[in-house]
Design goal:
The complex is a heterotrimer. Chain B is mostly helical. Chain B is built from 22 helices and no strands. In chain B, α1 runs antiparallel to α12 (243-268) and α7 (159-171) packs antiparallel against α9. Classes of the chains: A alpha/beta, B mainly alpha, C alpha+beta.
């Protein structure tokens, strides 16, 4: 008969279920206690990946002299969460991967105006119109190419050219990647919807789709494709890891204000209702400080945007030399239409 | 007076009049109102499950019904609806074919190693859809799109059909099949005309869970780049940071869910309701497979290989060769322990809430009972992010101390997975003959004590199976966990997310492998479980 | 235990299902304390509904149920099942599969300490002839044993009334007689009032002290088995409780005899002024004699059913539409196609 065995399984399951419950309740209480404790604690909602920013946020904790708790998540989802929390938000500081999520909070009036001294650290192009968020670091769209497959001088100067027949089956890109989508939005702003739609159709016909920038870069390195549309820092990180001679790809920074050279920024804003404005302000100051900006330059290989810090990354063109398109980053909020277009074309 | 031995039929007398078509009143508990000790907690559970709907109502109509209607009435919405429904239809159909064929092979045939296979084919439950999707994408990028989404979702969800159908097959008296054979039906016709109709309620219950799972899934469809309703909802948050259209679209999902649940209720009919007769059916004589043995084995092996061995193998390969895969055993251990803890608490709470709803669904048949059960299902097709935001909304307003604490996360699991536990509880209670409860009442037990001393012990193995299934789905949950977890608390799923967000999938392999292996334990117990 | 206590009284009970079909239509029934009564009826007659209303699982629409002077159900009253002191023995026993035999029997013994509970359980198992089976699990028992445990379980809390719902249905016929006898003696030993629901007239007649025949939600007749069989209230009841021979009859002047196609028969009761009607005879009241017997009615043998201890011979008789059954004890002297003479003995009942 099966009853005894069924009973044993039930008992086993019950024990298996209860043990960790008790354990997690214990540990949960500890964490709960620390979350409540000390009203000077700063809570940061970070849309930037833990792997990238944890070291600098650890340093930030020392710099501001208060307990710092970081909640990692997706930038857009964290923005939605803050909007839902409203005036009872737990967040003191929102650290976003892109300008769009900051713009959304700014639009709802949830961000506090930053002091002019902070804003002045950064070029007007890379901060919020209302002065309630500020960019910290920038990443530029580039063309990665495989030198074994294509000579440097043959690499297109304009991203528009990758839809030419000669590149059929040779272009890699990641249409679900937020930076790619921001770039398409930029193209729409610069060249209009019709031209962009046409270009996307050509890209679809010519290109190979990858899940993200890294996979695209991998494909360029392996020669699976000759060209790849990526963010610049992936390549520099890889060079730092393996050495330039071991990396089978090179980068081309597109000249002449081409939309393919769009700059995206990551930035921060202080929540009005977080009740942590003072500490949060210290945190913003720290993130704009030389130490933090140098961290972004050296570790994430992004362009530092403040404190007069320039990147020491070998081979990285100076920020001033970039011929990026002149676009109001606030306009990149119209991502909705970009996505609709990508969907229409069948890329996402 | 001697007893007449005439066999009882009054020969010279008129036939007894007064035969009515009315069946015996054996199923009568259906007519009674459930006792308040069941009704009150069941209503509480249903209201809890309806929280996301309350939130959606607030958000969807905050800019007036016209705005919501414009979102819903958009041409694109119809397109997405078609895409979502066609994906759902294909995955449900494929899961039915896979689940029913595997159930029949492992329960009714002389398949070599049938018991082992029956355990192996439940293991896909342990594989999160997003892990399956990225292993497939990495090896076969061309699968992206409808085909890939359908493939991956089928491979991870067919056990939802296989488990209840296998249990139902074990419960069918083989004498019926023998009778059909003796009436001149071949084995296939017997299966189609006698066995299959009886499996319908079980298969429909499983198919419903698969359908709602497909509708709510985000991980697989986003990786496979197949645009569905869920993706549109996510996109609405991500692209426009606008919660109103997302909520309006979510309402459409709820409507679809209600329609699906109602359709499933219909398939139950009267047949599946109360099993009469307590006698255990004689075990069936296994159908010899003859020359079909090899194809049958190949079928099972292919499915297990594609659904379990392939993702695990791919992860293993990445672990072996990938240089970005680092073994941070401390983090891994802590995440694993947290995962077990929150999933166990989630399973416990969900099962507890599901118990009264499941008992009422099994024992009572009025409109109220049906509404209760449907309420438990209503939010099940909503993507995790929507459910999570709704709990943010309510917790921030009405339960602030719980916000970003474990109890809220565990509550979210209960809202998300209540139907999984309700379905299991209902099936388990149906297996316990209602007459036992009547006997217990007549022996002086109150309804509550009958529940505790008779119904629950009898249904315990099935309820435990439901708890194990809930445990597995809680372990794999990502979007709600990400939003609602206490700061600094990481589960394997959130670690997996962090690693894939910064590096390649290979970097996430240790967490993915640990998640699958841990979730395989309750899945294994489910496969072993017999009702 | 007095004979007067534990009387079950049911008055004007009605019950309809939500479909609107009436099941009980003003049912009256009184079962004196200590009596084993059978409720006999065809399927669908409402007997199971009656049992469930008495037990409290169903709520009657109107009417009252009283037991031992307590109102269990009536206008504004509905005692829950657990407070009625009614034990039930369902079909197939319905033992709790997760409890041992002893724990099944002890299930209803809530008021006793553990020693008392043990003693009572042992007594009950002893009563049903299963002493020493306490540690077994239900699935380790035969069907008949399960049924007897179910009875012990129902009797253990000393209920005022025991309801038996076709309890012998699932048993094979060899076992059935034995279990039936055991159940009856166990019930007698405890003095409990009992109501046996069945569709099997043999079971009702042989087991019960009192048989209530239910038809279309009403009691058609309630009598002792003998009276029920001998003096059925109408031809339908006659046919339902056994084989019956129905004959058109003309009453003689005095009203104590009537003329039928089978000759003159004595009436069990005065005709009360009716001059014609139908008389009901039992096949064993008819006797076959040689075809040349004087004053006897002749018929042609159509068929013979042989049972061992007796046989049933079916004949066609002039003036009677339906075939006539005759029970013949001892050696058979006729075969199909032969002529035989029929003689009537005993009394018949006359019905309009």
């Amino acid at each position: 008969m099966r009853r005894p065995s069924a009973r044993r399984i039930t008992a086993l399951l019950a024990a298996g279920l209860l043990l960790p419950v008790l354990a997690s309740c214990g540990s949960g209480d500890d964490k709960g206690g620390s979350a409540e404790g000390g009203d000077s604690a700063l809570v940061i909602y970070s849309g930037r990946n833990e792997k990238l920013v944890k070291p600098i946020l650890d340093k930030l904790e020392k710099a501001v002299g208060a307990k710092v708790e970081v909640r990692y998540g997706d930038s857009a989802e964290l923005a939605a969460q803050i909007l839902e929390e409203g005036d009872r938000t737990k967040a003191g500081l929102f650290f976003s991967q892109d300008a769009g999520a900051l713009g959304a909070l700014s639009k709802e009036g949830m961000l506090a105006k930053l002091p002019q001294s902070s804003l002045d650290e950064v070029d007007t192009a890379y901060r919020g119109e209302k002065g309630d968020w500020v960019g910290l670091s920038g990443r530029v769209r580039v063309l990665a190419y495989n030198p074994d497959k294509v000579a440097e001088e043959k690499v297109p100067d304009r991203v528009a050219d990758v839809t030419k027949p000669e590149w059929k089956g040779k272009v890699g890109f990641a249409p679900t990647n937020a930076s790619f989508q921001a770039f398409v939005t930029g193209m729409r702003v610069l060249e209009g919807d019709d031209a962009t739609r046409l270009w996307l159709k050509g890209l679809k016909a010519n290109g190979k789709v990858y899940t993200n920038n890294l996979a695209t870069l991998d494909a360029v390195e392996s020669g699976e494709v000759s060209l790849g549309l990526v963010n610049h820092y992936y390549w520099y990180e890889r060079v730092a890891e393996k050495g330039e001679d071991k990396v089978g790809a090179q980068l081309k920074f597109l000249p002449g204000g081409d939309p393919g050279a769009l700059i995206n920024v990551a930035g921060v804003g202080i929540l009005k209702e977080g009740g942590q404005a003072e500490t949060a302000q210290k945190a913003v100051d720290y993130l704009l400080s030389k130490e933090a900006q140098t961290y972004f330059a050296d570790t994430t290989k992004e362009y530092p945007l403040a404190a007069g810090v320039t990147s020491n990354v070998e081979g990285l063109p100076p920020f001033d030399s970039l011929e990026s398109p002149d676009i109001d980053l606030g306009k990149l909020e119209s991502l909705q239409e970009t996505l609709a277009m990508l969907q229409d074309v069948g890329l996402v | 007076m001697t007893t007449s031995a005439s066999g009882g039929r009054p020969a010279g007398a008129p036939a007894p009049a007064g035969r009515r078509p009315l069946r015996k009143a054996d199923e009568t508990p259906a007519g009674r109102r459930p006792p308040w000790v069941l009704l009150a907690p069941a209503c509480a559970a249903a209201l809890f499950a309806l929280l996301p709907l309350g939130y959606l109502a607030v958000r969807a109509f905050e800019r007036g019904p016209r705005f919501a209607w414009n979102v819903v009435g958009d041409e694109r919405t119809l397109q997405l609806l078609t895409r979502s429904l066609s994906l759902t239809a294909v995955v449900v159909a494929a899961s039915l074919v896979l689940g029913v064929s595997l159930a029949w092979l492992t329960v009714r045939t002389a398949l070599p190693g049938a018991r082992t296979w029956s355990v192996l084919v439940t293991l896909p439950l342990a594989v999160p859809s997003y892990v399956a999707a990225f292993t497939w994408l990495a090896s076969a990028p061309r699968t992206a799109g409808f085909a890939g989404a359908a493939l991956v979702l089928t491979l991870v969800s067919f056990p939802y059909v296989h488990l209840p159908v296998a249990a139902a097959l074990r419960g069918i008296d083989p004498a019926q099949e023998e009778a059909a054979r003796s009436l001149g039906h071949g084995p296939i016709r017997t299966f189609l005309r006698v066995t299959l109709p009886q499996l319908r309620p079980a298969a429909a219950g499983g198919a419903l869970l698969v359908a709602l799972y497909v509708l709510s899934d985000f991980g697989a469809v986003s990786l496979m780049r197949y645009d569905t309703f869920t993706r549109a909802i996510h996109t609405s948050y991500r692209a426009s940071f606008d919660r109103t259209p997302a909520a309006a679209l979510s309402v459409v999902l709820v409507v679809m869910t209600v329609a699906l649940v109602a359709a499933e209720t219909r398939t139950r009919g009267r047949a599946g309701h109360a099993r009469t007769g307590g006698g255990a059916a004689r075990p069936a004589v296994p159908v010899p497979l003859g020359p079909w043995r090899i194809p049958a084995l190949a079928w099972c092996a292919t499915l297990v290989a594609a659904s379990v061995a392939f993702p695990l193998g791919t992860l293993g390969y990445w672990l072996a060769v990938g240089n970005s895969a680092t073994w941070d055993l401390g983090t891994l251990g802590e995440a694993a322990w947290t995962t077990l803890g929150v999933a166990a608490a989630g399973a416990a709470l969900t099962t507890l809430l599901a118990l009264p709803v499941g008992v009422i669904a099994a024992r009572h048949r009025g409109r109220g009972a049906r509404l209760l059960e449907q309420a438990a299902y209503a939010g099940h097709a909503l993507p995790g992010i929507t459910v999570a935001l709704s709990l943010v909304f309510f917790a921030v307003r009405y339960a602030y101390p719980l916000y970003q604490q474990l109890p809220l996360l565990i509550g979210a699991y209960a809202v998300l997975f209540l139907p999984v536990a309700v379905a299991a509880t209902r099936a388990a209670v149906l297996q316990a003959p209602p007459v036992l409860e009547d006997v217990a009442r007549s022996l002086g037990r109150s309804p509550l004590r009958v529940l505790r001393e008779v119904t629950v012990p009898l249904a315990a193995p099935g309820v435990a199976a439901g708890a194990a299934l809930t445990f597995v789905v809680c372990m794999k949950e990502l979007p709600a966990t990400l939003l609602l977890r206490p700061t600094d608390v990481d589960t394997l799923a959130t670690r997996l997310w962090t690693e894939t967000g910064s590096g390649s999938f290979a970097a996430a392999a240790p967490y993915a492998a640990a998640l699958i292996l841990l979730a395989a334990v309750p899945s294994y117990l489910l496969g072993r479980h017999r009702t | 235990m007095t004979d007067h206590g534990n009387e079950l009284r049911i008055e004007q009970l009605t019950k309809s299902y939500s479909s609107g079909a009436p099941v009980l239509q003003g049912l009256d029934l009184t079962v004196p304390g200590g009596t084993l009564a059978a409720v006999l009826g065809p399927s669908g007659c409402g007997k199971t509904t009656l049992l469930r209303v008495i037990a409290g699982f169903l709520r009657a629409d109107t009417g009252t149920v009283t037991l031992d002077g307590r109102t269990l159900a009536g206008p504004g009253v509905h005692l829950p099942p657990e407070r009625r002191r009614i034990g039930i023995v369902p079909q197939e026993g319905a033992l709790f599969p997760h409890l041992s035999v002893a724990r099944n029997v002890a299930f209803g013994l809530t008021g006793l300490d553990s020693g008392g509970r043990r003693r009572r359980t042992a007594d009950m198992l002893d009563l049903v002839g299963l002493a020493g089976y306490g540690d077994r699990m239900p699935h380790e028992l035969s069907g008949g044993q399960q049924q007897r445990v179910a009875l012990a379980r129902a009797l253990a809390p000393r209920p005022a009334l025991v309801l038996l719902d076709e309890p012998f249905n699932a048993l094979d016929s060899a076992l059935r007689t034995g279990v039936r006898a055991d159940v009856r003696s166990a019930l007698r030993a405890t003095g409990a009032t009992a109501l046996l629901v069945t569709h099997d007239q043999q079971e009702a007649l042989s087991t019960a002290d009192l048989v209530a025949v239910v038809r279309q939600g009403r009691v058609a007749q309630c009598d002792t088995p003998q009276d029920l069989y001998r003096r059925p209230a109408d031809p339908w009841v006659a046919g339902f409780v056994g084989d019956a021979v129905l004959l058109p009859a003309t009453v003689h002047g005095s009203g104590s005899t009537a003329t039928t196609p089978l000759g003159t028969v004595a009436l069990a009761a005065p005709s009360e002024g009716r001059s014609t009607g139908t008389v009901v005879l039992r096949p064993e009241q008819l006797q076959l004699t040689h075809a040349d017997t004087e004053e006897a009615v002749r018929g042609t043998v159509r068929d013979v059913f042989y049972y061992g201890h007796d046989a049933k011979v079916t004949l066609s008789v002039q003036g009677v539409d339906d075939p006539v059954d005759v029970r013949v004890a001892g050696p058979l002297s006729v075969g199909p196609g032969q002529e035989a003479a029929i003689r009537v003995t005993g009394e018949a009942t006359l019905h309009p």
